[in-house]
């Protein structure tokens, strides 16, 4: 994996990079998780959203600092390799690659529910819309079509504006009594909700893959991180607080809380407006994560820890067709299991969240060895790693998924990779 520490005059500027960064984090989870969180923890679920935002601040800046010191398209896998060797990077790779078949169908179903709500359709319409969204995510990568950074910035602005509109038009209908009882299931439930809600915060590690594309990584990485934290924080806390205050007891049972907020102020215009936004909000993360995972699968195959045929098309500018096809098959198998009632959307979200949390914790653990000891970034990465491990422990039954994937990766690495060499030197730049 090559790296590029120099500034590139043709690279991503601050706002275009921020658009991509926000687009990787601000996904369709915000459309449905306020209701699921309220069902599990009541209005106290607000504490989980706020705590995750605070805790993800050192996560975001830890990754930004590692990427600033050594921009590389390999991202977390590159840092894990440097810190712990190739066998350890297989674990990180497996956790990310095999999380997509859980997360992608759940993301598509969320968008499908909003589209069905707008069209006045039922469960069947939602499933058809979800299948089309899922297929579009894979098809766009199969033909090499990706959203440009400029378009991603425009979409991010429009989507943030829509969510802000939902909060603004619903605000006059807020009632203080909707916050009582505040914690009907006790405060321990907040921890469990935080683990589930990490689905909405997965993506902070995306900057590690984008760092080499920045026009000036040394200057813009931290600025883009600040902008992203502000945008995501305002949107998430605003939408969730408005959902609790306006929808009250109806929130836990709502499949489309954002549409319900818009309907308070806009009437019949709300549903189609939200459906269009849901389609875009769903497609963006699907396209981005499928693109990254398919290329990761080709890289893992080239390293000998996935079937060699999956390495085809893994070069720059190529389409990793076999890896993409394997990923699509697993995703649609998972989607079929959900349709047949064998796996709930909450199970899929929980499994994907646990995997992404584990990947994030792994990347932060690498930072404890790569960053200079005693610096603010080093202390920050220790705090962030501890927080991610704590969140991971609250995953409950979902923890079995990353545990099994890690075990498979360890076995595969021990069988197919040579005895690991000494890890590469720390960054300390």
> How much of the residues is beta strand, in percent?
under 5%
Instruction: Report the average pLDDT across residues.
Output: 82
The number of helical segments is 17
Report the biggest beta sheet as strand number plus sense, adding barrel if it closes. none
Oligomer: single chain
Helix content: over 70%
Shape: globular
Run of helices and strands? HHHHHHHHHHHHHHHHH
User: What is the number of strand segments?
Assistant: 0
**CA distance, first residue to last residue:** 18 Å
Residue runs with pLDDT of under 50 for 5 or more positions:
1-7
Structural class: mainly alpha
Radius of gyration: 21 Å
List the helices and strands and how they pair.
Elements: H1 14-25, H2 29-41, H3 45-69, H4 75-84, H5 86-97, H6 100-119, H7 123-142, H8 149-170, H9 188-201, H10 206-210, H11 217-247, H12 257-266, H13 270-302, H14 321-339, H15 345-370, H16 376-393, H17 400-416
């Amino acid at each position: 994996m090559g790296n590029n520490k120099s500034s590139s005059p043709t690279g991503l500027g601050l706002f275009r990079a921020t658009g991509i960064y926000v687009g990787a984090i601000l996904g369709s989870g915000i459309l449905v998780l306020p209701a699921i969180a309220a069902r599990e923890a009541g209005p106290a679920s607000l504490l989980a959203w706020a705590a995750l935002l605070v805790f993800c601040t050192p996560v975001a800046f830890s990754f930004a600092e590692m990427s600033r010191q050594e921009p590389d398209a390999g991202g977390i896998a590159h840092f894990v390799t440097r810190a712990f060797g190739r066998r350890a990077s297989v674990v990180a790779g497996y956790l990310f690659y095999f999380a997509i078949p859980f997360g992608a169908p759940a993301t598509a179903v969320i968008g499908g529910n909003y589209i069905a709500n707008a069209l006045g359709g039922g469960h069947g319409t939602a499933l058809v819309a979800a299948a089309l969204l899922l297929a579009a995510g894979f098809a766009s990568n199969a033909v090499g079509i990706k959203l440009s950074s400029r378009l991603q910035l425009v979409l991010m602005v429009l989507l943030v504006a829509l969510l802000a509109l939902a909060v603004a038009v619903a605000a006059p209908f807020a009632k203080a009594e909707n916050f009582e009882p505040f914690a009907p299931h006790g405060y321990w439930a907040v921890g469990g909700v935080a683990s589930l809600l990490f689905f909405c915060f997965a993506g902070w590690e995306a900057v590690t893959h984008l760092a080499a594309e920045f026009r000036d990584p040394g200057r813009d990485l931290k600025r883009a991180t600040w902008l992203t934290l502000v945008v995501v924080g305002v949107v998430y806390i605003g939408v969730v607080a408005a959902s609790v205050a306006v929808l009250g007891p109806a929130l836990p049972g709502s499949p489309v809380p954002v549409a319900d907020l818009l309907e308070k102020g806009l009437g019949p215009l709300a549903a189609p407006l939200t459906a269009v936004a849901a389609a875009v909000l769903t497609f963006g993360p699907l396209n981005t994560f499928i693109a990254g995972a398919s290329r990761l699968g080709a890289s893992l195959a080239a390293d000998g820890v996935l079937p060699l045929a999956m390495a085809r098309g893994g070069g720059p500018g190529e389409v990793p067709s076999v890896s993409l096809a394997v990923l699509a098959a697993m995703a649609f198998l998972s989607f079929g299991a959900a349709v047949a009632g064998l796996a709930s959307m909450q199970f899929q979200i929980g499994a994907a969240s646990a995997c992404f949390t584990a990947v994030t914790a792994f990347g932060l653990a690498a930072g404890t060895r790569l960053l200079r000891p005693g610096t603010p970034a080093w202390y920050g990465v220790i705090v962030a790693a501890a927080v991610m491990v704590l969140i991971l422990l609250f995953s409950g039954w979902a923890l079995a998924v990353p545990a099994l994937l890690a075990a498979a990766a360890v076995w595969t690495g021990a069988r197919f990779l040579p005895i690991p060499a000494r890890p590469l030197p720390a960054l300390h730049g």
